[in-house]
Write a structure and sequence with these properties.
five-stranded antiparallel β-sheet, rod-shaped, alpha+beta, 4 domains
Length: 372
């Protein structure tokens, strides 16, 4: 049997730790360590030298901690039990995790007790080979992803559930908004869990929460969910109504401008102004409701109505001529103070409408006073 042997890694990439079946090796044996690996020598269960990537001839010169155990005087054979563990330091991705029971906490926004579950994926790698071997591996011949999670599950659950409750309870968002804050939630849990993984020589490189199991159908949850949705629906509806009212007001304003421009064009074409149009409306109303013959008793003649101007003035003047021709009763026929007040009010209305000037109004008032 050859005294010198070749010791190398023969596991797969999903294995964290693999123990070489070659034990009690002799001096001058060859050790091959691949990239992203480390090899740790054990003697009687005690971790000694650690080798990084490279090829090594196992001699007492490059294994200082084994010098006293490799017995050259006995022909290169060691009388001590020696082992080599290979540690895979590549990132182990897509490792599943999930809570094994519901996590209860007080919902921070709406203040009601709530139970949720969570699951996701994580990426792990070894950052301290000695610590991992001494704390988790022991005398096992290998440690796979599933083996690591199986050994680590109870410890992980004891840590992650309080972290989930604390993170959700102190979060600035409610359970109904957590889906939009998954990255934030995942980062907070990763920060909390990192020291716990480091304690076992494992680096928590990535940590993702992909699912939050909510208590759909539970009465309290559904009640506050409806309140939450209604709150934002009312706000959205109010904003929409406000925008609609603004659009309506702008439309009405533009409509008024267009109508005003059309009326201004029409007046310009027919030869009268807005003031003249309003004066005509007042005169027409007075003529319709009262005896137009009374205008003659107030000293209002055709000259006054001609102040309306243009076509409208002619129309009003004609109307007044007809009224004068059809009315023969003197002003005194109405008699009394009430008739005087009524005529005076009509004169004021005509002055305010621009039909009578200040001088004409005063002259007509004097005429009324003479007839009292």
């Amino acid at each position: 049997m050859a005294l010198a042997k070749i010791i190398k890694y023969e596991g797969d990439n999903s294995t964290f730790v693999w123990k070489s079946p070659i034990e009690d090796f002799n001096t001058l044996s060859q050790l091959i360590v691949h990239q992203s690996q480390e090899a740790v020598f054990f003697k009687n269960g005690q971790a000694l030298d650690l080798f990084e990537a490279g090829r090594y001839t196992l001699e007492t010169q490059n294994i200082p901690l084994l010098r006293r155990f490799l017995n050259l005087p006995t022909g290169g054979k060691t009388p001590f039990h020696c082992e080599v563990y290979f540690v895979n330091k590549t990132q182990q991705m897509a490792i599943k995790w999930g809570t094994d029971s519901q996590v209860q906490y007080m919902e921070p926004t709406y203040k009601f007790p709530l139970q949720i579950g969570a699951s996701g994926e994580m990426t792990l790698s070894v950052n301290d080979s000695r610590r991992l071997l001494t704390k988790l591996v022991g005398t096992e011949s290998s440690l796979t992803q599933s083996g690591l999670i199986a050994q680590f599950r109870s410890y992980l659950m004891s840590k992650i559930k309080p972290y989930i409750a604390a993170t959700m309870q102190s979060a600035p968002y409610s359970i109904f908004e957590v889906d939009a804050h998954m990255d934030e939630f995942s980062s907070a849990l990763k920060r909390a869990l990192t020291p716990d993984f480091n304690e076992y020589g494992i680096s928590l490189d990535k940590f993702f929460v992909t699912t939050i199991a909510k208590p759909d159908g539970e009465a309290a949850y559904e009640k506050f969910k409806e309140i939450h949705i209604r709150q934002y629906a009312d706000i959205a509806e109010a904003k929409l109504k406000q925008q609609t009212d603004v659009i309506h007001a702008e439309t009405e304003a533009k409509k008024t401008v267009i109508e005003s421009q059309a009326m201004a064009t029409k007046r310009a074409q027919e030869g009268y102004t807005y003031q003249q149009e309003r004066g005509f409306d007042v005169a027409e109303k007075v003529a319709e409701n009262e005896a137009v013959g009374e205008f003659t008793n107030m000293g209002v003649g055709l000259g006054t109505m001609a102040g309306v101007g243009g076509a409208v003035g002619g129309m009003v003047g004609g109307m007044m001529n007809d009224a004068i021709g059809q009315t023969s009763a003197p002003a005194q026929s109405t008699g009394g103070l009430d008739a005087f007040k009524m005529k005076l009010e009509k004169m004021k209305l005509m002055k305010e409408s621009g039909i009578l000037s200040e001088e004409e109004f005063n002259a007509a008032k004097q005429e009324l006073l003479k007839n009292l």
